[in-house]
Amino acid sequence: MNNKDAFISIRDVGKSFGTFQAIENISMDIREGEFFSLLGASGCGKTTLLRMLAGFESVSKGEILIDGQPMSDVPPHERPVNMVFQNYAIFPHLNVAQNIGYGLRKLKLPKAKQNEMIEEMLDLVQLTGYGTRKAHELSGGQRQRIALARALILRPKVLLLDEPLGALDKQLREQMQMELRRLQRSIGITFVFVTHDQEEALTLSDRIAVMAGGEVLQVDTPAALYEQPQTREVASFIGNMNFLDARVTGDINGYASLDVQGIGALNVPRLGKTLSSGDTVCVAVRPEKLILHDKAPSGPEKSIPGTIELVTYLGERSHYHVRVPGCDTAIAISSQNSRMNQPKEVQEGRSVWMTWAPDALIVLER
Amino acid sequence: MKQSTYIKRPNRALQIYAIVFLIVLYLPVLFIPLFSFNDSIYVRFPMQGFTVEWYKAMWTRDSVWAALGNSVTVGFWVAIISTALGVVAARAITRYRMPGQNALITFAMLPLVVPGVIFGVALLVLVSRLGIPLSLYTVSLGHLIICLPFAIATLLPRFEGFDRSMDEASADLGENGWWTFWRVTFPMVAPGVVASLLLTFTISFDEFIMTFFLSGTDTTLPIYIWTQLRFPREFPTVLAMSTLILALSFVMVFIALWIGRLGIVTDNAEDTK
What mean pLDDT do residues A101-107 have? Predict the structure, then answer.
């Protein structure tokens, strides 16, 4: 716990509202200068955790340290963090420059210096010349930028963002994602970002904490979360995943021998998990890691025959649902439409075969 | 397009009812300014001729001005104090959940329904028991009880519409509770505060029953007018004075409503963005 990477240290933190346990028992470290996301469905405790970092919620149990300082007795207005609120909380009675400069009063700087800082912030969020606009004259994207500028002008050690892009339309959201990333890189402040949108979290973050039911399921880089989910919950939350029930039959050289429902005997990388014969597990595979063939492949690798049940054409790619005899659910396959070996005329009802790369399968506890 | 739905169809009967209602409500009131310009001490038709003599007579009478001064002074302080208390109450009601809160709100609103006579008598008994002499202070106390529910009722919607994240944003940007109140909360509820000041001033200015029970030798304008009614010669002067009060009250209430509305309009403009 005491490694110097830990810029924000969350130690055994719990939060209860009356009898309701919002945060169970969370411990994790956030590094300096990192873009860290808290990802989870609504009600998973991510916003509560963020508000505890800001000081708006007290910590029922455990401790939060920011830059080595315990935060328990520090009120929100004295913490070295600033926040971008979900609804932006732009002060409606102040203009843009007054909103951005709101936090400067306490610094007791000369007026000229304050104005200079405000101008600098307006430039940073690309709203040069908007200083005298009224709050209600602004669009959603502009309000978002002002909320950002207002929080960043105080040079916080940590910037907290509570689903700041949720209210924006898709195009603007993607544009703001890019800007947020660029901004975070250029100023180097630690960002803690709350979102329920897994795509957004994957796009923006250096690391992501996946949360559910007040607990942290896994903290990892986007790639590691996607490629090596530790639990079935994480695997199903991030991207699409096929799950097949299986039973452990043995262990050979770091591979688990499995008897998979509808497929039969398979060897799957064990990835350090301890499995013993007779355990019921599940095998997970991403739809895009399965390869579709219109005739039985001649190679030595294992292939599974099936019948196309549903084809969904999505332009750059197509989704297929393949019914495999003995499997409870249809297997989803996603295939780039530019692929050379793509079956030309794949129709519903047609017989197909599936193959996969050796590392495509992941074994998970059920 | 055929206006088949009853929602869009104009309701003739209802329109006539509304017009009759307004006439019955305001016609008697309109006689006051009308006869205040009548060149006769008797209020009856036909009217005699146009005169501003009653207004002039009023102008030269010191006791009128003393009563008016008392009314304005009492109204001013009652408006300030009841609005200040209303701000505190409205903020507490909207911000905190406390046991017995609804009972407390009902209790604060009680003067709206309890007859003024009862409050007047009760307060009179109380202050005389305590040996406090009747004065403009006791009058103000009575007015305060009447005005507080109006102040709370005017301010509560402004505070209820107040987004709590505004306070949090201010705290997050380094301001403590005191500065947050003056830099964020107060400016945002200011239209409600102005509306409350004007409304409570008007109510205090017009108040009769409580004043009647609680005033000493100094008296307010409504009481002064009432005492003048005993002298028929003074009646036209009373009409002139009433006209002025009427005009003043109308202007104040309209300003109060207009300011309150102004705040709501700008709020809505933000919501649609």
Answer: 89
Residues B200 and A107: beta-carbon distance below 8 Å: no
Residues of chain A neighbouring B171 (CB-CB closer than 8 A) = 55-56, 75-77
**Is A168's Cβ below 8 Å from some Cβ in B?**
no
What average pLDDT does the structure give for chain A?
87
Helices B101-109 and B62-95, packing angle to 10 deg: 170
Within 10 angstroms of residue A120's Cβ, the number of other Cβ atoms is 13
- What CATH number does the domain located at B62-272 have? 1.10.3720.10
Q: pLDDT of A119-159, one tens digit each?
A: 989 988 888 888 888 888 888 888 988 999 999 998 899 99
Span B105-139, pLDDT tens digits = 888 888 888 888 888 899 899 988 988 888 888 88
Q: Domains of chain A, with CATH numbers? A: 8-236 (3.40.50.300), 240-365 (2.40.50.140)
Where exactly does CATH 1.10.3720.10 map onto chain B? 62-272
Q: Which of A83, A100, A118 to mutate to test the interface with B (most CBs of B within 10 A)?
A: A83
Choose among A85, A136, A154: nearest Cβ to B266: A136
Query: What pLDDT score does B264 carry?
Result: 53
Bridge-partner residues for A252, per DSSP?
A255
Strand A304-313 and strand A317-323: pairing?
antiparallel
Distance of CA A306 to the CA centre of its chain: 34
Give the pairing of strands A264-269 and A190-195.
unpaired
pLDDT of residue A341: 53
Tell me whether strands A158-162 and A190-195 are parallel, antiparallel or unpaired.
parallel
As a whole number of angstroms, the distance between CA A214 and CA A41 comes to 11
Q: How is residue B41 annotated by DSSP?
A: S
**Nearest chain A CA: its distance from B264 CA (Å):** 12
Report the alpha-carbon distance of residue A310 to residue A303 in Å, rounded. 20
Cβ atoms A97, A146 nearer than 8 A? no
Whether the model pTM is above 0.80? no
Contact A61, A14 (CB under 8 A): yes
Q: Distance (Å, rounded) from C-alpha B188 to C-alpha B119?
A: 35
Q: Which of A76, A93, A139 sits opposite B273 (nearest CB)?
A: A139
3-state SS, one letter per residue, for B69-131? HHHHHHHHHHHHHHHHHHHHHHHHHHHCCCCCHHHHHHHHHHHHCCCHHHHHHHHHHHHHHCC
